[in-house]
Amino acid sequence: MTILSIAQNEDRARKDACGILSEGGLVALPTETVYGLAADATNGEAVARIFEAKGRPRFNPLICHMSGIAMARRYVEFNAMAERLAETFWPGPLTLVLPLKADAAIHPLACAGLDTLAVRVPTGFAQGLIAEFDRPLAAPSANTSGKVSSTTADHVAADLGNRVRLILDGGPAAIGLESTIVKPTKTGIELLRPGGLAAAEIEAASGMRLTRSTEAAPAIEAPGMLRSHYAPGAHLRINAQTAAAGDAVITFAGKAIPGDEHASIVLDLSPSGNLREAAANLFDFMKRADTAARNQIVVAPIPKEGLGEAINDRLERAAAPRV
């Protein structure tokens, strides 16, 4: 495992990454959402290495990252609404689930056997790397499957270690939550996973209300839909009103939880009540709480508006019964 700082030597980082990706190897790279574990999406052996490194179930599809709309059009079909959303929010934290073209070179393993593909365009270094590589990168979050996502290079190294050849250090992820995933259809837009782009922003741009699944166990059409996901090692309790001795406590907006004076650690996602700051801190604080907890992790209630919807989604899956 090698860790390279992008800030110190961006040219070398890009060159080394392209070399490893061309050989079918794995590279952990920063995006604006979380760190991704990237491989050539057209290379079946490379994609298989992602599943092996993460211990990821093969029925769980991957997001394929593109350099722009032009590259995405090589692999998926856009309807008018998909075009509108892509033009508005790409590059950025929005993933579109779109019909896969019959002649698309994406390896079927990346799609988990589906006839659709989850695609997005990241910002910054990742977008430039994909443009230079000139092939899409399958890149789920760079962590063991089902565990807390990585938002720093150190998180990746601690979790995956030598399972990845190269880790590119771009500093802490700016958003700290995975992308929002939607599926534009003939009749509307389905929200498959809330994330770093608030649903209200998508609704404002599209002029349509997003639909949400009411099924207890919806079909897995995109990453992040497993009931148990993003889980720390310690048991996690959400919407907590009290804390016990030895608990690791995560609060919000400067509000104390009765009993937190006996906690092993108290972390406030955002003392000012800023949901964007809370989102950026969530996974890092979950990892810190997991290390400090002598009992369990308890999390205070978080408002569900805006990015709070995505924060609560991650917490609910992290607190779900483990499989």
UniProtKB/TrEMBL annotation:
<dbReference type="InterPro" id="IPR006070">
    <property type="entry name" value="Sua5-like_dom"/>
</dbReference>
<keyword id="KW-0067">ATP-binding</keyword>
<protein>
    <recommendedName>
        <fullName>Threonylcarbamoyl-AMP synthase</fullName>
        <ecNumber>2.7.7.87</ecNumber>
    </recommendedName>
</protein>
<keyword id="KW-0819">tRNA processing</keyword>
<comment type="function">
    <text>Required for the formation of a threonylcarbamoyl group on adenosine at position 37 (t(6)A37) in tRNAs that read codons beginning with adenine.</text>
</comment>
<dbReference type="Pfam" id="PF01300">
    <property type="entry name" value="Sua5_yciO_yrdC"/>
</dbReference>
<dbReference type="GO" id="GO:0061710">
    <property type="term" value="F:L-threonylcarbamoyladenylate synthase"/>
</dbReference>
<dbReference type="Pfam" id="PF03481">
    <property type="entry name" value="Sua5_C"/>
</dbReference>
<comment type="similarity">
    <text>Belongs to the SUA5 family.</text>
</comment>
<keyword id="KW-0963">Cytoplasm</keyword>
<dbReference type="InterPro" id="IPR005145">
    <property type="entry name" value="Sua5_C"/>
</dbReference>
<keyword id="KW-0547">Nucleotide-binding</keyword>
<dbReference type="InterPro" id="IPR038385">
    <property type="entry name" value="Sua5/YwlC_C"/>
</dbReference>
<dbReference type="InterPro" id="IPR010923">
    <property type="entry name" value="T(6)A37_SUA5"/>
</dbReference>
<feature type="domain" description="YrdC-like">
    <location>
        <begin position="11"/>
        <end position="197"/>
    </location>
</feature>
<dbReference type="InterPro" id="IPR050156">
    <property type="entry name" value="TC-AMP_synthase_SUA5"/>
</dbReference>
<keyword id="KW-0548">Nucleotidyltransferase</keyword>
<dbReference type="InterPro" id="IPR017945">
    <property type="entry name" value="DHBP_synth_RibB-like_a/b_dom"/>
</dbReference>
<keyword id="KW-0808">Transferase</keyword>
